[in-house]
Amino acid sequence: MMMNSECNRESEVIQAIIENNWPGELRLHVDSCVPCRISEQLFTAFQQIKTETEKYANIPRFEHILIESELQKETHRLQNFNRLISLSAFAAAAAGFILITLFNPHDDWMSVRRLFSFFNFQTVASCVLLFVIAEAPLHLFLKTRLKIL
Amino acid sequence: MNETEFKQLYETHAKSLWAYIRRFCNDEDLTNDVVQESFVRMLSREIPSLTDPQKKTYLYQTATRLVLDHWRANKKVTELTIADRTEQSFEWKAVQKIDLENAFSQMPSNQRSLLWLAYAENYSHNEIADILHIQTKSVRVLLFRAKNKLLKFLSEKE
User: What is the pTM for the complete model shown?
Assistant: First the structure.
């Protein structure tokens, strides 16, 4: 049982079934048109299957959807907050690095050249440490006290 | 969208969405998760104001994508491929609902989704293309082949 072709009146047939309104000539057409007859039968059968499937649909309770949605919103908000903390800590470390190198009391201050000459392992290590000191407590607080992230 | 509107949307479309996903993926646990997540995403994200049909399409799109993402993560092949074309001419007979349901459940998931969206949900080809993320011009061909495959299954059962 196969179809070799389609019919451009199939959508009319479906609409007639939905509205339960069959113009006379359309009914005659379906009786003589295999693709339309098949579409009619398939549509009717699928509507019955859909109705029966929906009867045993185990949909979640509406309240669960609301709660889950609020939880997701809160999680996104705190993830954004966490990113902001990390960015702030990085900015603080960078600012500290610049201030340490520029305002050295033992040499001419505001020397940009010294900024690059001071870029050694000790300075970088200091800045990383500054970053960790700035960010770690806040991160730990978010994870342990608020139990997220 | 306020809570009352969302509740109305949920009561209108939850069961039909459940039925679609259940028939699409044949996995009740996955269906429950996907339906919940689809509505949660709709509620928790700031989507521009949509008409009721657009909201329904959005839900079906989201749900379909969630199922496909789940399968990809579990390494199940779900690409919408074009089926082999083997047309033969047979005498048409009346479609029996039970045989149809059995034959339908044996079809590939992509063809199940096409047939369900077209005949159970009465979506247009444009809307089916949006939901399944395929070209509109492909829907007609794929749907034709899905119908033929279904009819082939039905004729084999006789």
Answer: 0.72
